[in-house]
Amino acid sequence: MATIKEVKEQLATLTDLDDYRWASFEDDSRAGVQTAIKQRRKAILAEIAEEERLEMMLSYEKVLYAQGVELIAGVDEVGRGPLAGPVVAAAVILPKFCKIKGLNDSKKIPKSKHEAIYKQVMKEAVAVGVGIKDNHVIDDVNIYEATKLAMAEAIEKLSPKPEHLLIDAMTLDLPIGQTSIIKGDANSLSIAAASIVAKVTRDKMMADYDQEFPGYAFAKNAGYGTKDHLSGLDNFGVTPIHRRSFEPIKSIIKSR
């Protein structure tokens, strides 16, 4: 009789819930085997669900593929809300029908998996462009306009050039076809890819700023107005990377 370890190895080869081989395993009454069967079935169901999720997130891309459009750039940004640091945008062109397991809106991906999925996107992508606008630009033109400038910069850096843009909840004044998608980073794999690239890029920048400006917990809060960040402002004041047009930074500067 096969050992439980050997049974687990055999179960790992099963990928279809209708496979005739399940019956022979189910006849094994050992508790360890029955547990292994449940675990494998659960894993297969999770794989099926993930495949369905990824397929759904390709719906906008598939409409364009059917029209003969293949170079589709997903565009997204990170950093509109923080009190410090830049706004970062990314534009990513994925290969036709490309699926990356675990790829989703960066806010829905566990932080521990960000780097791995980022690396997979960078490996698979046809092209990646990143645009960065610092706090000075944000203060000069406002965060909305700075975001558009960062997105335009990211798109400009793409090679080959995209034939169509899928953008998260925004329209850009560019001579190229585009589709604005509400919650695009959760509904388009191309935008989700841009979301994780922008997120990881910006997080690394804020971790570097944490070394340059200690006391604000930038590596932890990425510049958002957390308790630690606000405490840092009280104790150490405003840094060169703070957005002076944002509250409470604006009021702090006026009061000093």
UniProtKB/TrEMBL annotation:
Its predominant location is: cytoplasm
Hydrolase as a keyword of this entry, yes or no, is yes
Name the UniProt key words of this record, in alphabetical order.
Answer: Cytoplasm, Endonuclease, Hydrolase, Manganese, Metal-binding, Nuclease
Residues annotated to bind a divalent metal cation = D76, E77, D168
GO MF: RNA-DNA hybrid ribonuclease activity
Question: EC number(s) per UniProt?
Answer: 3.1.26.4
Q: Where is the RNase H type-2 domain?
A: 70-256
CDD domains attached to this UniProt entry: RNase_HII_bacteria_HII_like
Q: Which cofactor does it need?
A: Mg(2+); Mn(2+)
Q: For this protein, what does the record note about how its cofactor is bound?
A: Manganese or magnesium. Binds 1 divalent metal ion per monomer in the absence of substrate. May bind a second metal ion after substrate binding.
Q: Where in the cell is it found?
A: Cytoplasm
Q: Which reaction does it catalyse?
A: Endonucleolytic cleavage to 5'-phosphomonoester
What does the sequence similarity comment in the record state about its family? Belongs to the RNase HII family.
Which HAMAP family does the record associate with it? Answer: RNase_HII_B
Function in brief: Endonuclease that specifically degrades the RNA of RNA-DNA hybrids.
* PANTHER family named among the record's database cross-references: RIBONUCLEASE H2 SUBUNIT A (PTHR10954), RIBONUCLEASE HII (PTHR10954:SF18)
**Annotated protein name in UniProt:** Ribonuclease HII
Q: Which organism is it from?
A: Streptococcus vestibularis ATCC 49124
What high-level taxonomic lineage is stated for the organism? Bacteria, Bacillati, Bacillota, Bacilli, Lactobacillales
